[in-house]
Amino acid sequence: MTTVKNIPPHKGTYIPSEEEFTLQELDKILSSTIKYDSPTKKILFLGMTLNYTREDQQNFAFNSPSSSGKTFVALEVANYFPTDDIVTLSYTSPTAFFHTQSVLVDENLSPMPQRKDYVDEWIEKWEESNSFPEKGQGRSEWKEKRRDKIRSLKVEWDQTQKYFMVDLEKKIIIFLDQPHDELLKKLRPLLSHDQKFLKVKITDKSREGGHKTKDIIMVGFPTVVFLSVNTSLDGPWILLRSDWDSGGW
Fold it and tell me: Please, are residues 36 and 246 in contact by the beta-carbon 8 Å criterion?
């Protein structure tokens, strides 16, 4: 008998309290909101449970015409998993994806403060050991030294190796619309599980109006669900169909 074990609990009441249950019981649970598409919803649910393994995460592509129900099936199945693990995105450019999901870290992947916070923290320490003169004598020199210290701290921060880390470990990412082609190209090595830590470079606008390169580190293997009407998908996908003609709901 095929069984399903260790299912993450839904915040509602659909998942039974037993440690394991059959695929027939799973189909009955999912049918409370998804009336048909039995193979599709079960495959997707089981695939999403693999999100909590070490490296067996899967990538799913719903390849069907518009209004065939692919979005409904994907979002309803995702409702059975912890909301903190679900990332739902519509159209997304490469820079927007990395900026939204990333945190600033050093080469040891330890969190780093932003430039202003870094300067403010160290200039406060400098002021503690360099008291402001009580009288006019020496105040100009103190202010000049403070300005020099601020400049040196900014240079120090700029020269420090830093990365924008995108932590995708144990995440279920659902693309509701086709993302930018460049984003898919950058994600493909991660989707193929080439390495769990991948370095990517993106180009972003600088404050001066030019362009600068940012170093990105992607961490972890996510579960990715891609919803598209495109029939030519290049990548390590499990192709699913959701057809109104096969039953609907």
Answer: yes
